């Protein structure tokens, strides 16, 4: 693949990965966690790096998928690309899946980065919450609450299974008056933090490694007049030593397992921790980590091979 030069004047760098089709879900989740935006999946496709249109969809590509995404061309670009390469090498270990291709180049046309807007329709979470874009805000009748969301280039509109499952568990387990404070790890667009506030929490702290996500989350707080109750900080769980009544973490399995003990320390009993971003085959690994952290599962939901769990301290 072409390697980005340091201090590149290019605003975005686009990446393409050709992988075995069955690995697309787990790789897309990891790619999102790295900060890729506007992820597009091309089924039955192969890469043609020397062509301007570098993706070819053909029946001969049966079993292959090409994934297309973009990273900001900033100081973290090379580290993200290397992390993605390492992840692909560790994932494609079987002889039948050992082949993968990664190709990158400066992004010439960034229009596709916001094409998702035409597909963003209001999302209803049970009878408690309606999530809608600023350009479509239908009225709601209490006890239904409304959350206006402008994702920008940050992941999280409520339509992806990982976000949707986290929202459903949030709506089902957050109790107004009991769960007053919220910590949202990997907050992205701020959707879980702000949803918690609309559902009865008093204050929320959202953290994310991406500076762009923090800007989007702050904007969304203002859209909903929640800027005085929500605070967003670049970083992770270690930006605070406080305990919270309710925690959410919609992130990839690896970082989640590494931080689970720290999250448990920040969960005030008898609070609830909602975990999402987990594929079904990864659930046993997560449950082992939960057991070592003295956390127990109180509710579970699945959708499209994704799993979300609500957990509490073991009594």
Keywords:
Alpha-Beta Plaits, Rossmann fold, alpha/beta, 315 residues, globular, 4-stranded antiparallel sheet, 2 domains, 7-stranded mixed sheet
Structural class by SSE content:
alpha/beta
CATH class of the largest domain: Alpha Beta
**Domain module count:** 2
CATH structural architecture of the largest domain: 3-Layer(aba) Sandwich
Which helices and strands, and how do they pair?
Blueprint: E1 12-20, H1 24-34, E2 37-43, E3 45-47, E4 55-57, E5 64-72, H2 77-91, E6 101-106, E7 123-125, E8 129-132, E9 145-148, H3 161-173, E10 181-185, H4 191-198, E11 203-208, H5 211-223, E12 230-234, E13 244-250, H6 253-266, E14 267-279, H7 283-292, E15 295-303, E16 306-313
Parallel strand pairs: 8-9, 10-11, 10-13, 11-12, 13-14
Antiparallel strand pairs: 1-5, 1-6, 2-5, 3-4, 7-8, 14-16, 15-16
Model description:
The strands form four sheets. The chain has a seven-stranded mixed β-sheet, sandwiched between helices. The model is unreliable at 1-9 (pLDDT under 50). It has two domains: 12-114, Alpha-Beta Plaits (2-Layer Sandwich), CATH 3.30.70; 120-313, Vaccinia Virus protein VP39 (Rossmann fold). Helix 1 (24-34) packs antiparallel against helix 2 and helix 6 runs parallel beside helix 7 (283-292). The protein has helices at 24-34, 77-91, 161-173, 191-198, 211-223, 253-266, 283-292; strands spanning 12-20, 37-43, 45-47, 55-57, 64-72, 101-106, 123-125, 129-132, 145-148, 181-185, 203-208, 230-234, 244-250, 267-279, 295-303, 306-313. The relative contact order is 0.11. Strand 7 and strand 8 (129-132) form a beta hairpin. It starts with 11 loop residues before the first strand and ends with a strand. With 315 residues, the protein is of the alpha/beta class. The chain is globular and about 60 Å long. The protein has seven helices and 16 strands.
């Amino acid at each position: 693949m072409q390697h980005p030069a340091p201090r590149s004047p290019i605003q975005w760098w686009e990446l393409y990965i050709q992988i075995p089709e069955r690995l697309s879900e787990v790789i897309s989740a990891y790619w999102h966690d790295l900060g890729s935006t506007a992820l597009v999946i091309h089924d039955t496709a192969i890469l043609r790096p020397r062509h301007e249109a570098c993706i070819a969809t053909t029946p001969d590509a049966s079993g292959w998928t090409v994934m297309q995404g973009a990273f900001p061309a900033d100081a973290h670009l090379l580290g993200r690309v290397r992390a993605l390469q390492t992840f692909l090498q560790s994932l494609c270990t079987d002889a039948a899946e050992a082949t993968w291709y990664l190709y990158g180049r400066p992004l010439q046309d960034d229009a596709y980065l916001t094409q998702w807007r035409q597909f963003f329709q209001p999302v209803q979470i049970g009878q408690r919450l309606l999530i809608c874009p600023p350009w479509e805000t239908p009225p709601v009748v209490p006890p239904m609450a409304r959350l206006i969301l402008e994702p920008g280039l940050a992941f999280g509109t409520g339509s992806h299974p990982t976000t949707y499952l986290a929202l459903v568990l949030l709506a089902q387990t957050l109790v107004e008056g009991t769960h007053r404070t919220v910590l949202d790890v990997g907050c992205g667009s701020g959707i879980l933090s702000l949803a918690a506030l609309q559902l009865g929490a008093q204050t929320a702290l959202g953290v994310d490694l991406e500076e762009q996500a923090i800007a989007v989350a702050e904007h969304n707080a203002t859209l909903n007049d929640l800027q005085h109750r929500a605070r967003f900080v670049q970083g992770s769980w270690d930006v605070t030593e406080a305990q919270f009544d309710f925690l959410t973490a919609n992130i990839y399995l690896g970082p989640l397992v590494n931080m689970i003990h720290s999250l448990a320390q920040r969960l005030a009993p008898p609070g609830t921790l909602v975990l999402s971003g987990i594929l079904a085959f990864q659930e046993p690994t997560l449950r082992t980590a939960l057991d070592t952290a003295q956390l127990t599962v109180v509710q579970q939901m699945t959708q499209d091979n994704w799993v979300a769990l609500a957990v509490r301290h073991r009594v």
